[in-house]
Amino acid sequence: MNKSDFPILKEQIHGKPLVYLDNAATTQKPQVVIDAISYAYSHFNANIHRGVHHLSQVATAEHEHARQLTANFIGAGSAKEIVFSKGTTDSINMLAWSLGEWKYNGQYVLKEGEEIIVSRVEHHSNIVPWQMLCERRGLKLKVIPLNDDLTLDIEAFKKLLSNRTRVVSIAHVSNVLGIINPIEEIIKLSHQAGALVCVDAAQSAPHLPIDVGALDCDFLVFSAHKIYGPTGLGVLYGKESLLSNIPPAEGGGEMIEHVSFEKTTYNTLPYKFEAGTPDFIGSYAFGKAIEYIQKTGLENIHRYETDLVGKLEESLLEAKLGSCTIKIYGQGQKKAGVISFNLFDSNNRLVHPYDIGTLLDQQGVAVRTGHHCAEPLINTLGVPGTIRASLALYNDENDVNQMIKALEKAAQMLC
Question: Can you tell me the distance from the alpha carbon of 20 to that of 399, in angstroms, rounded to the nearest whole number?
C-alpha cells in the first residue's frame, strides 16, 4: 500500500511527521473513500428504497451493491444476512435486545436462570449489552478466565459450558492485547453445548480474512471506520434462519411491511432491522474501502502486518530505555495489529501511560493510552492502563523506528 493514498499521513504534528499508531481506535481513510463521500453527496444524494425518481434509484442501487460487497467480504451466503448499523457497539446492542425479546409459542426463548458467556478480554461493548439483557431476563453472565500468558483458558471455558448456556459472545482479537483468540474452537464447543455464538470482529476484520460460512458463527459484528471506511456505519451479520425469527430492536420507517393502529407487520430481511433512513452515503464509501483493500488482499495484508508486529515487539524489547524496564502484555503470542506495554522505573514503579503517550505525541507519534474500554482486563493486569501501539496496512518499519526513538527519548526524561 502507498502512504500517499492517505492524505492525513502527510500531516505535521508539533512540527514532526505524523506516525499514526492508533489504528485499533480508528483507521485513516484513503483518498478513494474521501472522494466517494463527496461524489455521493454531489451526484446521488436522495433517500433510498422508497423513491421512484432517478436519484433515489441510483442511491438505492449503490447502497445495495455495498451490502453485497460486504457480504462477499466476510463470506456471507446472502446479502440478506448483512444488517447495516451505526457500528460494532450498536450491532451488539441490537442483537442483545432482539434475542431478549425473542419468543416461541408465546414464551421467551431465553429463560430465567439460563446463561451467557463472555471472556475477560472483552471490550465494554461486548459486556454491558449482555449485562443489560441478563438484568432484563434474569439470566446469568459467566466469564472465561485467562491463563498466565493472557490467552483464554479454554479448559475453564469447557467447564463453564452447560445445557443452560444460550449465548457465547467473544472477541476474535483482543483490542488491548492483540491476541488472536481460538475462535474456531470456541464456536465448535459452543455449538456442541447448544449455544448461539456472536463474534466481535471489530479488531479482526481489518487484519484477518474472515469467512463466516467456514467459521459457522451465528452472528458477527464489526465497524467500517476500523477498516478504512467512514465513521457511523457498522455491520451485524446473522444467519438468515436466525434473523428471520428474532424480532427487530427498533421500529419506524423502512422496517415495516404494513402499519395499522391495531398491528404492524415487518419488512423482509435485512430491512426489518434497519429502521429509518440508513447511512447510504457511508455504505457507498465503505464499499470503496472494501474494494481498496481487496486490491492487495487480506491474506497479504495479514502477512505484512504480522511481520511488522513482530518487528515492533522485537524493537521494543531492544530499546534503550535507561533505567526503565518494559513489560509487553501477551509477549510472544500470535497477534493481529496490536501491542500493549508499560514502562517501569528502577524501583519497579509504573511510569504512567498518559505521561508516555503525551511525550510521544510531542514527537509526532500517536498511540492510545488508558484502559481501552476494557476495564476488567486492565484490572486483571494490575495497572491503571497501558500504552497501545496498533498498526495498519500503511505503517512500515520507518514508523516502528520513529516510535522507538520517541520512546527512548521519553524514557530518558521519565526514568
Answer: 8
Burial label, 303 (beta-carbon count in 10 A; 0-12, 13-18, 19+): exposed
* Per-residue cell: 221: 459484528
pLDDT classification of 1: cutoffs 50, 70, 90: low
Task: Out of 296, 317, 351, pick the residue that ends a domain.
Answer: 296
- Model confidence pLDDT, tens digit, residues 84-111: 999 999 999 999 999 999 999 999 999 9
- pTM confidence score: 0.96
Catalytic member of 198, 217, 373, 415? 373
* CATH code of 107's domain: 3.40.640.10
Q: In 3-state terms, what secondary structure has residue 257?
A: strand
20 shares its domain with 50: no
Grid cell in block for residue 215 = 467459521
Beta carbons of 224 and 88 less than 8 angstroms apart: no
Does residue 256 surpass a pLDDT of 90? no
* Residue 117 Ramachandran class (φ > 0 left, ψ -120 to 50 alpha, else beta): beta
Check which CATH number belongs to the domain holding 376 and give it: 3.90.1150.10
Q: What digits encode the pLDDT tens for the residues 22-40? A: 999 999 999 999 999 999 9
Domain of 336, in residue numbers: 3-26+298-414
Give the dihedral of Cα atoms 62, 64, 65, 67; nearest 10 deg: 130
Q: Are the CB atoms for 71 and 211 separated by under 8 Å?
A: no
Q: Is residue 100 domain-shared with residue 233, that is, in the same domain? A: yes
DSSP string, 109-131: SS-TT-EEEEETT--GGGTHHHH
- Got the DSSP string for 363-414? TTEE-EEE-TT-HHHHHHHTSS-EEEEE--TT--HHHHHHHHHHHHHHHHHH
Residues 22 and 41 in one domain: no
Distance CA 21, CA 365 (A): 7
Residues, the chain: 415
**373 is an active site residue:** yes
Q: State whether 215 and 94 are in the same domain.
A: yes
- Are 207 and 63 found together in one domain? yes
Cell of 280: 447510504
* pLDDT tens per residue, range 389-404: 999 999 999 999 999 9
93 and 221 belong to one structural domain: yes
pLDDT of residue 255: 79
User: Which residue type does 76 have?
Assistant: A
* Residue 242, amino acid: L
